[in-house]
TrEMBL record, chain A:
Sequence intervals crossing the membrane: 63-81, 144-161, 193-215, 227-251, 263-279
Record-stated family: Belongs to the binding-protein-dependent transport system permease family. LivHM subfamily.
Any Pfam family matching the protein: BPD_transp_2
GO cellular component terms given for this protein: plasma membrane
GO biological process, one term: amino acid transport
Keywords: Amino-acid transport, Cell membrane, Membrane, Transmembrane, Transmembrane helix, Transport
GO MF, one example: transmembrane transporter activity
Source taxon at top rank: Bacteria
Subcellular location field: Cell membrane
Membrane protein topology class: Multi-pass membrane protein
Organism from which the protein derives: Antribacter soli
Protein name: Urea ABC transporter permease subunit UrtB
UniProtKB/TrEMBL annotation, chain B:
Organism encoding this protein: Antribacter soli
BP GO terms, sorted: amino acid transport
Signal sequence residues: 1-20
Domain of life, source organism: Bacteria
Protein name: Urea ABC transporter substrate-binding protein
Gene: urtA
């Protein structure tokens, strides 16, 4: 029975990692931008949930409202960042890293000034409190909700990339920027939209995380490392890789943690990933491409 | 025609870079260096200027970084105490002039700034510090420069420096009474959950020794790295261990994730109460009252303490910083520390460190938490232990209290079961 409980815990952790990393797999994976402020876009999503709950009151309605709003808030922040800073340094990934790290610190301080340093509380709706009991197993409803949300996000993103004209343009720019431009695709516009979607997904992740963790200025820093880890292990440029990597990391962490301790599990996960990247530096799944990433 | 892949190279470079970044980010959170400051013990000659109408004191709290959330509150209550003392005529007729420095949540910065406050600002005493790492980093600075630090937070004990006054609880004034309370309530088994660093590890060593001597079974002991956000596995372990109570030494944001998980998994204070030693009034709001109502805490002060001194303190604090700001144990201990220093200076009739230390023994002050007495030998203060229950109003209400102030015993020398711990 414990094994099944751990299996669920692992899948659930995987879904949290997936939500955090999904947007990053677009901006980092597809565009090659190392965006250290991705975590702060999640934080912005979480505070969106807080503000919406303050206005709406009802926890259930506000959660459902906050999800699309969080997407827009995260997306707009991303758009702003892309338009002001990142587009100037597409060929300089290391500079982007430092600049976005600085932006992350600025955003944290802004949150601290606006909302105060202490954590704030977002109440979970009544229909998400407690656990579903299945034969001695207790599956927290919030985790089931997040699992579902992650699946919905992945499916929506995959469909958007595969079946829409926009998705075709994004894939074209990723695979060969020059050729895409030569074919009449505006790579600037495509970059912006890609960044909007990637950052928006961070906002959605932030709203979801209010159900599980603390909501404070440093929320993002707790997840950014794991999110990058997922994308790197999953392979640059493929959502499939991100999904598999997030699930594998979640399961690994929860089973290692079950048989050892949380700290040791973290070490083991890192060691496994380092070893894995030695064998397969391109990650789990790699796209054939001539572009930077 | 298939294009030959060129990706592995690019991918490898990016992944190498990002792994390097991850490592840096991960490490910087730990701030592992503990060797404090420069060893310029030759210049231990004090430069404190007491000739004018003012005397300088230093406040050293993290106003930025991860600890800012907690330390800002301590800073605020120190400011309040200084303002009150100045309004009341200062110390020995001299007005207090505050020099504030930001410890930036980094132990090394604490050591640097402490050194700066002592040698270039020439302050008479420094008030602040929160994490044990910051205190351990500052300790050699204060000892080599022969200056004074007042440290306001409960900690793991097993320390006593002639240059530090500890106005928060040591273990025998917080953890031991909490265990006494649990025994009194009939607890036979405990599950220990803590963050993975010095305070929880030391605290749990003490709890294990206590448990062995009192016939309590420790059914589990789990540590989560600082900043850990996913507690489903630990909560699974707690659930299947089915202890009589959980002893929680988690610190910071982890508490939020832990209690949300605990609650979501369908467990409550009725099934398995959790006793926490790092959750005070201001953290309750961030965790969400609905997630933590009915759980227990161990401290020496709550906002709800019923005394004229506390009423005045709470009213003054709210008037200064706003009606929605709660007061908590570390804030009260910081507030008290400034008044204790004032009393020591006045008794010594001098700002010199040696005179102040010599005058410290037996100084009493009617603090908001009740009467406190300075122990001149180990530089801690006698405090009353209070076990509280978190109410639906978000405040903590005293459930049990030690009958009188407990003498500080940082090395637990007065407890047979603690032999060999220090």
């Amino acid at each position: 029975m414990d094994i099944i409980a751990q299996l669920f815990a692992g899948l659930s952790l995987g879904s949290v990692l997936l939500l955090a990393a999904l947007g990053l797999s677009l901006t980092f994976g597809q565009m090659g931008v190392i965006n250290m402020a991705h975590g702060e876009f999640m934080m912005a999503g979480a505070y969106t949930a807080f503000v919406v709950q303050g206005v709406v009151g009802d926890a259930g309605v506000s959660l459902l409202l906050a999800l699309p709003l969080g997407f827009v808030v995260g997306g707009l922040l991303g758009l702003l960042l892309e338009a002001t800073l990142i587009h100037r340094m597409y060929r300089r990934p290391l500079d982007t890293l430092l600049v976005t790290w600085g932006v992350a610190l600025v955003l944290q301080q802004v949150a601290r000034d606006v909302f105060g340093a202490p954590n704030v509380d977002v109440r979970a709706p009544a229909w998400l409190s407690g656990a579903v009991q299945i034969g001695g197993l207790a599956l927290p409803r919030t985790r089931l909700f997040i699992l579902t949300l992650a699946i919905v996000c992945v499916v929506a993103l995959a469909l958007a990339l595969r079946a829409t004209p926009l998705g075709r343009r994004i894939r074209a720019v990723v695979q060969n920027r020059d050729l895409a431009e030569a074919s009449g695709i505006s790579s600037r516009a495509t970059d912006r939209v890609t960044f909007f979607i990637g950052s928006g997904l961070a906002g959605v992740a932030g709203v979801a995380l209010t159900l599980l963790g603390s909501i404070g200025p440093t929320l993002g820093t707790n997840y950014i490392v794991d999110a990058f880890l997922v994308v790197v292990a999953g392979g640059i440029g493929q959502i499939k890789g991100t999904v598999i990597a997030a699930t594998a990391l979640g399961l690994m962490q929860s089973f290692f943690e079950y048989s050892t301790t949380a700290s040791v599990a973290k070490v083991l996960v890192f060691v496994t990933i380092v070893a894995f990247l030695q064998l397969r530096p391109q990650g789990l799944v790699s796209v054939r491409t001539r572009s930077l990433a | 025609m298939r294009l030959r892949s060129t990706s592995p190279h690019g991918a490898m470079r990016l992944s190498t870079v990002s792994l390097a970044v991850l490592c840096v980010v991960g490490l910087s959170a730990c701030g592992a260096r503990v060797d404090g400051g420069s060893d310029t013990s030759a210049s231990a000659e004090s430069c404190v200027d007491t000739s004018g109408d003012t005397v300088k004191i230093g406040f050293l709290n993290s106003l930025s970084g991860t600890m800012a959330i907690s330390e800002q509150t301590v800073h605020d209550s120190l400011q309040l105490a200084a303002k009150e003392i100045n309004a009341d005529g200062g110390v020995l007729g001299k007005e207090l002039e505050i020099v504030s420095e930001d410890g930036q949540s980094e132990p090394t910065v604490f050591a640097e700034k402490a050194s700066k406050l002592i040698t270039s600002d020439c302050v008479a005493a420094v008030f602040g510090g929160w994490t044990s790492a910051s205190r351990k980093a500052m300790l050699p600075v204060f000892e080599s420069q022969d200056s004074l630090l007042f440290y306001p937070v409960q900690y793991e004990g097993l320390e006593s420096s002639p240059n530090i006054f500890y106005t928060g609880a040591t273990t025998n004034q917080q953890i031991v009474p909490a265990l006494d309370y649990l025994v009194e309530q009939g607890a036979k088994s405990l599950f220990l959950v803590g963050s993975d660093y010095v305070f929880p590890r030391t605290a749990n060593k003490i709890i294990n020794a206590y448990a062995e001597a009192h016939g309590i079974e420790i059914v589990g002991e789990e540590y989560a790295p600082l900043g850990h956000t996913d507690f489903s596995t630990i909560v699974n372990k707690v659930r299947s261990a089915d202890a009589d109570a959980v002893f929680n030494t988690l610190n910071g944001d982890s508490n939020v994730a832990f209690f949300k998980e605990y609650n979501n998994a369908g467990m409550s204070a009725d099934d398995m109460p959790v006793v926490s030693v790092s959750i005070a009034e201001e953290e309750v709001g961030g965790i969400g009252v609905e997630n933590i109502e009915g759980q227990l805490t161990a401290w020496n002060y709550y906002q709800t303490v019923d005394s004229p001194e506390n009423t005045a303190f709470v009213e003054a604090f709210k008037a200064e910083y706003g009606e929605d700001r709660p007061t908590s144990d570390p804030m009260e201990a910081a507030y008290t520390s400034l008044y204790l220093w004032k009393a020591m200076v006045e008794k010594a009739d001098s700002f010199a460190v040696d005179d102040v230390v010599a005058a410290a023994d037996g100084i009493t002050y009617d603090a908001p938490e009740g009467k406190v007495v300075v122990n001149g030998e180990n530089h801690h203060i006698a405090k009353t232990a209070l076990i509280g229950k978190i109410g639906a109003d978000g405040l903590i209400h005293t459930e049990w209290s030690s009958e009188e102030p407990i003498e500080p015993d940082p090395y637990l020398e007065g407890y047979d079961w603690a032999d060999g711990l220090s």
